[in-house]
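Running this now, will post back.
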Amino acid sequence: MLFDIDKKTASSVAAIDDAGGQVTYGELVSLRNEMAAVLPARELVFCLCENRVGALAGFLALYDCKDVCLLLSAKIDKELLDTLYETYRPSYFWMPESKCEESPYKSVFNYKGYALCKTGNKAPAMHPDLSFLMTTSGTTGSPKLVRHKYGNIEANAKNVAAVFEWPETERGIIDLPMQYTMGLNVINSHLYAGATVLLLEANLMNPKYWNFVKEQKGSNFTGVPFSYEILNRLRFWKMDLPHLTTMAEGGGKLSDTLFKTYADNAAEKGKRFFATFGTTETSARLAYLPPEDATTHIGSIGKAIPEGKLILVDENGKEITEAGVEGELLYEGPNVTMGYATSIENLAKGDEFCGVYETGDLAKMDADGYYYIVGRKKRFLKLFGLRVSLDQSEKIISEHFGIECACTGDDNQMQIYITQEELKEEVKQLISEKTGLMTKFFEVNLIESIPRFESGKINYKQLKK
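Update: finished.
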């Protein structure tokens, strides 16, 4: 079975959620056998996910039954779900029982608050190596999916578990959504180790969240940059969490200020702070910074995970080996997925990445062989003939004023979005000075809040001038 679940101690708890749900490793094995009895192999299943044991157990069983799941949020916008449904025509849904009751589809199997519902559609033609599907990071209204192959999440779970040295006694706090690549990887690496995952629907600002973490003795936390911004506001380092020994960050770049704050505090309090980096196309993590180097390599994503390789290339595709030279970051490893799908016909396609993924991120390597992300290849404007990084502009503004901001625009003008009206002119003046361009090339817009995806990343498509 996946992650050798059938070889774990049957009575050990695999997952607990903050609604009172629980599932053991033995129950996961039994569910796989029950699911196989009611569902043919190679069906396309839309999984409407919550951080609940029913959602997770169902996905694991479907994966082992060789059915192909598309992981989606149970709170997905109806219009987007309709678009995906019409594009891919799934033969089944795995969804909360409450949603099944509201749908026109017939339930054929139920488990821990979730139902398997048959749509009546015929399973599409799918490549035999296709294991499951995820939406691309930042997708809004697009049917573009990432095609995983068998071996991807297995390799990533094994190598990430090795990096973190997870024991069976580990109790991982999972508040990132399981349909989000980082959230799923955190779950998978713990299951590979035979540990326990603590699934939360409550958010960081909810007292229920921290009560659950304390009651269940959560021992590690993984967050995106936005999570760490919230923790900082909550004065996290003053909290009484004696069982929490490891902090991990991924899903985007922390500001250098916050990075240093967490690295220094972790070192001072005898905890581990891991910076990690990855993409949906690489089954989540592809690089990590050893915690012992966090205080001396502020902002670094570190080095490749075991069995992986990081490569920098210049604009002509030639490998860069010198320290301090920027280039596009490529990754090679067994966790690289098959490619994309934008139509039902694409589900039959073979492996297009062939083990190598071009991240689109610009990076550089230091003298110690550690890598730093400096921006996105396509996140640039050309203002007055000069190339201006939108990512770097956001960093300058955020760190100078200590505020949230987002930058977009075109080659005529940069659009800057902030939430503090009194800073509009100061922000414009600052970015003008830093870039050496006249203020007319920048427009600062006031908005109520910076729109974000559930992953915590900025939703640039929702920004309106």
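The chain has a mean pLDDT of 94. More later if anyone needs it.
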